Each structure stands twice: as structure tokens, then as C-alpha cells.
């Protein structure tokens, strides 16, 4: 049985690596968080009730409960504009947002509305209309306003968990093809009042090469699954693992367990980066040794 599980893990990891047209280098994929989540993600793909393509055409047809967001996009935009004036769409104040920490260095900013829970207290106070709309749509598990200023970018990456699909609703955008997201090599340029939905476990990246700012409503929507046991499993993982990535906007908002620990892991990471600058060969040797030890431990047990 142990070897069957090992083979299933390896097969799942290979499938995730080969999925889609755009792929990470093998060395990077071995250390990517999506590799460790591969068996769970393959289960999500196998039992998905919606297509597992990079983009999902016509989100409203697959998720009619989301229509109030598009219908009220101008009211949502006004709350986002007010947040920007207050300078509350911003990078994390400390090392307490492990999921998006690397994005902040390249200009990306966010304001959390909710994260696998009810609205953050700060969001309920500053964005009452948007949080009330979200409260009426239980399939939206996470939501935030995100900003991509001129000259900013997000490097190619894939998200670790396939239990959701990502919705982007344009609020204040350049309305210009120079500001875009690419998912598995397919480009989409944001437009005010228009939306798109995509599978964030494909490799994707974004750039704003225009001269204007971009603000969108960003939502993670629960992936519809074919069987009740699969839906229950998805919600269990979301509640006990993904929810631990909650990050605060300000004091009084919840910080998940993973982000409470992140500052300690980041201190170790800084030392690792310093080692890479001094001795790249030793750095990668230790990195791959760590992976090998984890695999050996799994096989041993």
C-alpha cells in the first residue's frame, strides 16, 4: 500500500507538471507548492462539474449566483476608490501574508474583503455594500480588491490549490491591451464592468505596461464538484488548511496560523537567500537534499 501511495503521488505530480502548454522548469516544479498538493488537485480536476480549461467562458452561466457582483460593479468601484484615497489598498504591513508576499516587491497591492470566513472587520466597516453582496454568495470563499499600478507585474506562478476558480471583475482599469493577465499563455485584458474567470492552478502572470492604474475585484469561487463526498472534502481542506492563510488589513482583522508563523520562516528564508548569494552550488545542493530527505521519510514510513 505504501508504494501504491508513493506511485500515485509521483503520477499526480507529473500530471500537474505536464498540464497545460506553459510549464515551470523541472527544478522549480519539484520545489513548487503545487507539487505537494498534486494528489488533492488531481482529485479536484477529475470530479469538476465545470470545464478544467485555463479560462472559463461566461462565468454567469456556470455561476448565476455571481450576477449581483457584475450588476453592482459601479457601487463596488466607488468603495474601492474610497479605499485607494485612504491608501488602504496596500502591501502587507509586515511578514503576515505568505500567499502573496513575493507580489508586493513588484508593485501589486491588496485589501482583503474576506478569506474563507466572514468579512474582515475592517472590510465590513469600510466597504459595507461590497461585503453585504459577498455575504449573500456563499460560494465566494475569498475576496479582495487588488491594484496593479503602471509598470507593475506578477511573475509566472501557479496557485497551490484547485478547490476554487478565480473571478476578476474590472472596476477601474486602463481599458488597454497593454494591461493584461496571461493564463497558460492565453491573454485577457481587463475592462471596466467586465469579468473573467480562470483556473489559477495553470501558470499565469500579469503586467501593466499602460500609463494608468488597474483595480479589480478578485474572488476565489468554490469549484463545483460532482459528488457530495468530494464537495465535503474540498470544504474540509479549505476550512482547515487554506483558511490558515488569512492575512489582516489592519489591527482587529484575523491572522491565520500559517501567517502567524510566516515571520519565523521568512527569517530562515533570508539566511537561505544570503547563502545563495555567497555559494549558489551549496545552496541548491542543500535545497535538493532537503527534498530528497522528505521523499525518503515518506517512503520509510
Write the layout of secondary structure elements.
Blueprint: H1 2-18, H2 26-31, H3 33-36, H4 38-46, H5 59-62, H6 67-71, H7 73-85, E1 109-115, H8 121-126, H9 128-135, E2 140-147, E3 153-157, E4 164-172, E5 179-183, E6 186-189, E7 195-198, E8 204-208, E9 215-222, H10 228-240, H11 257-278, H12 280-300
Antiparallel strand pairs: 1-2, 2-9, 3-8, 4-7, 4-9, 5-6, 5-8
Helix pairs in contact: 1-4, 11-12
Q: Which fold does the CATH topology of the domain at 59-257 refer to?
A: Jelly Rolls
Number of helices: 12
> What proportion strand?
15-25%
What structural class is derived from the secondary structure elements? alpha+beta
Rg over CA atoms, rounded to whole Å, is 20 Å
Average of pLDDT: 92
Number of strands: 9
Report the CATH superfamily of the domain at 59-257.
B-lactam Antibiotic, Isopenicillin N Synthase, Chain
The helix fraction, in percent, is 40-55%
* Poorly predicted parts: none
In the CATH hierarchy, the architecture of the domain at 59-257 is: Sandwich
Order of helices and strands: HHHHHHHEHHEEEEEEEEHHH
- Outline: globular
- CATH C-level of the domain at 59-257: Mainly Beta
Largest sheet: 5 strands, antiparallel
How far apart the termini lie comes to 11 Å
Placed side by side, the strands forming the largest sheet appear as: 1-2-9-4-7
Describe this structure in words.
- It is a single chain.
- The protein is α+β, with helices and mostly antiparallel strands and 301 residues long.
- The chain has a domain at 59-257: Sandwich (Jelly Rolls), CATH 2.60.120.
- The protein contains 12 helices and 9 strands.
- The chain has helices spanning 2-18, 26-31, 33-36, 38-46, 59-62, 67-71, 73-85, 121-126, 128-135, 228-240, 257-278, 280-300; strands spanning 109-115, 140-147, 153-157, 164-172, 179-183, 186-189, 195-198, 204-208, 215-222.
- The strands form 2 sheets. A 5-stranded antiparallel beta sheet has the order 1-2-9-4-7.
- Helix 1 packs across helix 4.
- The longest helix is centred in the last third of the chain and has 22 residues, at 257-278.
- It is globular and about 55 Å long.
Amino acid at each position: 500500500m505504501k508504494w501504491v501511495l508513493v506511485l500515485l503521488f509521483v503520477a499526480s505530480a507529473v500530471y500537474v507538471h505536464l498540464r497545460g502548454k506553459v510549464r515551470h522548469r523541472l527544478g522549480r516544479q519539484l520545489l513548487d507548492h503545487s507539487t505537494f498538493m498534486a494528489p488533492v488537485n488531481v482529485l479536484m480536476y477529475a470530479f469538476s462539474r465545470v470545464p478544467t480549461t485555463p479560462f472559463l467562458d461566461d462565468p454567469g452561466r456556470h455561476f448565476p449566483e455571481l450576477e449581483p457582483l457584475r450588476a453592482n460593479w459601479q457601487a463596488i468601484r466607488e468603495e474601492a476608490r474610497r479605499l485607494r484615497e485612504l491608501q488602504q489598498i496596500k502591501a502587507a504591513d509586515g511578514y503576515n501574508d505568505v500567499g502573496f508576499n513575493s507580489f508586493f516587491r513588484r508593485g501589486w497591492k491588496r485589501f482583503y474583503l474576506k478569506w474563507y470566513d466572514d468579512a474582515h472587520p475592517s472590510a465590513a466597516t469600510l466597504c459595507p455594500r461590497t461585503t453585504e453582496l459577498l455575504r449573500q454568495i456563499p460560494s465566494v470563499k475569498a475576496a479582495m480588491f487588488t491594484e496593479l499600478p503602471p509598470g507593475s507585474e506578477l511573475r509566472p506562478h501557479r496557485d497551490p490549490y484547485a478547490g476554487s476558480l478565480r473571478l476578476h471583475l474590472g472596476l477601474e482599469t486602463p481599458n488597454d491591451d497593454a494591461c493584461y493577465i496571461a493564463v497558460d499563455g492565453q491573454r485577457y485584458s481587463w475592462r471596466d464592468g467586465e469579468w473573467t474567470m480562470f483556473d489559477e492552478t495553470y501558470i499565469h502572470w500579469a503586467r501593466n505596461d499602460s500609463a494608468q492604474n488597474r483595480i479589480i475585484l478578485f474572488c476565489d469561487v468554490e469549484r463545483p464538484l460532482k459528488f457530495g463526498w468530494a464537495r465535503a472534502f474540498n470544504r474540509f481542506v479549505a476550512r482547515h488548511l487554506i483558511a490558515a492563510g488569512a492575512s489582516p488589513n489592519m489591527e482587529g482583522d484575523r491572522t491565520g496560523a500559517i501567517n502567524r508563523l510566516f515571520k519565523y520562516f521568512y527569517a530562515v528564508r533570508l539566511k537561505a537567500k544570503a547563502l545563495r548569494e555567497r555559494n549558489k552550488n551549496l545552496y541548491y545542493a542543500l535545497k535538493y537534499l532537503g527534498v530528497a530527505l522528505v521523499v525518503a521519510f515518506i517512503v520509510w514510513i
